TrEMBL record:
This is Hexosyltransferase. GO terms for cellular component: Golgi membrane. It comes from Fraxinus pennsylvanica. Belongs to the glycosyltransferase 31 family. InterPro entries: DUF4094, Glyco_trans_31. The chain crosses the membrane at residues 12-33. It is found in: Golgi apparatus membrane.
Amino acid sequence: MKIRSYGKVSAKWVPIFSICFFFLGMLFTNKLWAPSLESNNQLIAQHRREQELQIVSEDCNTKKKKAGDRDKNVMNEVYKTHEAIQSLDKSISMLQMELAATRGVQEKGRTDNLAVNSKGGASRKKAFMVIGINTAFSSRKRRDSVRETWMPQGEQLQRLEQEKGIVVRFMIGHSATSNSILDRALDSEEAQHKDFLRLEHVEGYHELSAKTKIFFTTAAAKWDAEFFVKVDDDVHVNLGTLAATLARHRSKPRVYIGCMKSGPVLSKTNVKYHEPEYWKFGEEGNKYFRHATGQIYAISKDLANYISINQHILHKYANEDVSLGAWFIGLEIEHIDERSMCCGTPPDCEWKEQAGNVCIASFDWSCSGICKSVEKIKFVHERCSEGEEALWNALL
C-alpha cells in the first residue's frame, strides 16, 4: 500500500506563491519607509523656507541700510543749513549793532573827545572798559572821597586811558531848570577835574532806570569798548582786579557780570524799593528773576549796543537793577555770578585779601553802599586796596 506524501508542492503553484510573497514584501517595506520619506520631505521644505526667509531678510536689511544712509545724509544737510543760518544771524546782529553805534555817534555823541579820520567823519575811541560812576548833584563830597582813594586823577587818569584802555567817569545828567545853580556848580567841578560824562537826562532818584539806559547808550556811542561798567559813588573798587576779571571773559560775545540775586517783589507802597508793577511778577510773595545787584555790574559791548538800539522800547521798572535784568532775561547771554563784586567792608574784604582773594568791590549791604561813605571809604581803602601796582601790572 502506497503512503500519500503531503510535503510536496506542485510546480505550478511556485510562481504564484513567489508573486504573492513579492507583493507582501513590497507592502511591508512601504509601511516601514513611508514615515521616513515624509519626514525627509518636511525637512527639505523647512530648509527651503528658511533660505527664502534669509533672502528676504537680507533684502530688507539692504533696503534699511540704504534708507538709513539717506536719512543720515539728510540730517547732515539739515545740520549744515542750521549752522549757516546761525552764522547769518550773527552777522546780521553784528551789522545791526554797528549801525546803531554809528547812529548813536551821529545823534548824541560829542565830538570834542573823538578822533577825526581822514574823511572828516567821527570814529569812536577804542577802550577796554568804560566805568560810569553814578552820582548826583548833592554828592560832591562822595566824589571827592572817591578821587582821594580808588579813582586816579589828572595825568594818571589820562595815562590809565592811554596805556590800559580803562576809562573812568562820573556820570550825571542835568537839572530840570536850564542853566541852574546846580548845573553851573557842576560845570565848575568838571573844568577842574575833567572826569565827568554828562548825560541828556534830568536828574532824579526815581529816574535811575532811565539814567542807566542813557548811560550805556551814550557811552557806547562815545567809546568802542569791550565792557561797560556801572558803579555807585559809595562803593570801593579795585580797578586792577576788576580789569583782570573782565579780561577772562573777553572772548565771550554777550556777558552780564555781577553779584546775582533774586529778592522779593515788594508790593506795599510804604516800603523802600516798592514795585508799582508788582502784579506783573505773579502772585504776592513772588521773587524777581535773577539779576545783578545795582551797586556794581558789567556788561559786554554787544549788550550795550543792544540797549542803544532798543532804548525807546525797553521798559523801565522802579528799580534800575531789575530793569537791566528784565532787558536781558529773554536774550541768549551768559549770566556770571561774580561774588568778589559784593564783598563786605572790613573785616570781610580784609580777610579775603589776606587769603589771596582780593575783592573787586566792597560795600555794606545794610546801606546798599558803604555806610557813611565819605568818612569810611578811606578806611576801607587802607584795609582792602589791591595796591597801586596791581592796576598798572594787570594783564589785559
